[in-house]
Write a structure and sequence with these properties.
Blueprint: H1 2-25, H2 27-40, H3 60-73, H4 81-90, H5 97-119, H6 122-133, H7 135-167, H8 172-182, H9 187-199, H10 204-215, H11 218-233, H12 237-261, H13 263-286, H14 288-296, H15 298-322
Helix pairs in contact: 3-5, 5-6, 7-8, 7-12, 8-9, 9-10, 10-11, 11-12, 13-14, 13-15, 14-15
Length: about 325
């Protein structure tokens, strides 16, 4: 126990030392950056930052993000930082791309050291550390998917509001402003961002195109494409929006039916993944010496790694089978 307390204290001391050195070395640059940010920050909506913007926090959180950013800049990436930043914006996570890369590297290092120091097994610690590197990216993808689903669920109501506003004599920007005032995030923030960009000098087409890039939603792309076509060829925009709203609602309904029919496959994937872990924990508490053979013997370590890989491949295959596009 004392060994781990000393190890944790050494780690905390190192982190605080690096943070202190960062403040001393970059003190003048940080002061200039703070002044620039105070005068160049975008106008928030009712005291809130736009989705995808990166307002800098103060104090300890800011220092930690700066350190993660410094780590991320020195790590080569197969995926461009622009793509990572776009994914962060779509998930509405207030981080920079290099900060996410630094967090991934730090997560992998902590997991590797934890398993290596506790179990003393390098062969098991390496694959677990590699898998842990992708954990922050996986969480970003999950949050992005959840946000995109919320946008899809809110979009039909937003289109109905816009169509009703157009029939009442509002212009299209005025009808969008009603959505930005009356509805809840995330669609409230996205529509307000379009209005704000349009007021700042961008054309409505550019602002809508930027919203499509930020959201990466097929339904929003359908809405934007129909709107741009209508502006070129004319027609009854309110009727077009109502038709799109009906199409999106039908797609959501069909997707719900598909989710119901594929629920058994999803449950099978959950059981496949959780059952070996549960039995391993039960056996560990019943007969610890028996289970420790898997961690201490080379054959047991190979079997553990093969089991983890097999569970991951099985879950991916099941997910591909039950993932039906509509």
């Amino acid at each position: 126990m004392l060994y781990f307390l000393i190890l944790g204290g050494a780690f905390l001391t190192t982190v605080l030392l690096v943070m202190g050195m960062h403040r001393v070395v970059f003190a003048s640059r940080l002061t200039v950056m703070q002044r620039l940010e105070a005068h160049t920050a975008d106008a928030p909506q009712e005291g809130q930052a736009f989705s995808g913007e990166i307002p800098r926090s103060k104090g300890l959180k800011r220092d930690l993000l700066n350190i993660l950013g410094l780590i991320g800049r020195f790590i080569p990436q197969r995926v461009s930082r622009h793509a990572i930043q776009q994914k962060l914006n779509q998930a509405a996570i207030l981080m920079r791309a290099e900060e996410l890369v630094g967090l991934s590297f730090l997560t992998a290092a902590v997991v590797f050291l934890l398993f290596f120091l506790v179990l003393g097994q390098l062969l098991l610690a390496i694959p677990l550390g590699v898998l842990s590197y992708f954990l922050p990216g996986l969480l970003v993808n999950l949050k992005k998917k959840k946000r995109m689903q919320a946008l899809t669920d809110q979009l039909p109501e937003a289109l109905d509001i816009i169509a009703s506003g157009l029939r009442a004599g509002f212009s299209f920007p005025q009808a969008m402003a009603v959505v930005s005032r009356e509805m809840q995030p995330p669609i409230k923030d996205e529509f307000y961002r379009v209005i704000w960009e349009n007021r700042m000098g961008k054309t409505l087409e550019e602002a809508l195109h930027n919203m499509g890039e930020r959201t990466d939603s097929d339904d929003l792309d359908l809405f934007i494409t129909a709107l741009l076509i209508q502006k070129q060829v004319g027609g009854n925009l309110a009727e077009v929006l109502n038709n799109i709203s009906h199409t999106i609602r039908e797609r959501v309904r069909i997707q719900g039916e598909i989710n119901t029919l594929t629920a058994q496959g999803k449950m099978s994937a959950i059981i496949i993944i959780s059952l070996p872990i549960v039995f391993a924990l039960i056996l560990y508490f019943i007969n610890t010496e028996y289970m420790m053979e898997f961690f201490q013997d080379i054959i047991g370590q190979v079997l553990l790694v093969a089991s983890v890989i097999s569970m991951i491949l099985g879950s991916i295959i099941i997910r591909k089978i039950i993932d039906i596009d509509i």
